[in-house]
Amino acid sequence: MPAVSFRDETAAGTPGAAFRVEGVPERMTLRELIRLRVREEVARHNARPSDRFNGLVRPDDAETELNGYRLREPRRLDWERQADIAERAFLANGFFVLAGDRQVEDLDEEIDLTTDPGLVFIKLVPLAGG
Questions:
Q1: CB contact set of 87 (below 8 Å; sequence gap of 6+)
Q2: What is the total count of domains within the chain?
């Protein structure tokens, strides 16, 4: 079974967080991959809850900080809630995803992980006054 790598980058191409998940099916939709990513991030956080969360999307009642989010107090997160937020963020152009050298534009598009085993997530930041 293949593995998939998740990597964050800024819009300027500066690399951010990255991790790999082994033993995934050969083909998955972008929706499934986003949900997998979020589930893994939340599982890592919930293993040692803290007041910081480094993940794709901001949890409820958290403040955005450089390289993550600050929670009001250490707590466990609900991965399904976070995954729903991530799907909505994708649909609202909060981030886009590259598989290999192409942009994936549809949540239901299947990605062949034997040829495109790495996904790059690029978060888009709203401009001040925009």
A1: 31, 34, 35, 107
A2: 1
Domain carrying residue 35: 4-123
> Residue 30 is encoded by which pair of tokens?
């972008």
- 87 inside domain: yes
Tell whether 128 is covered by a domain.
Answer: no
Q: What is the pLDDT along the chain (130 residues), one digit of tens a residue?
A: 789 999 999 888 888 889 999 999 999 999 999 999 999 999 999 999 999 999 999 998 899 887 789 999 999 999 999 999 999 999 999 999 999 889 999 999 999 999 888 999 998 865 444 4
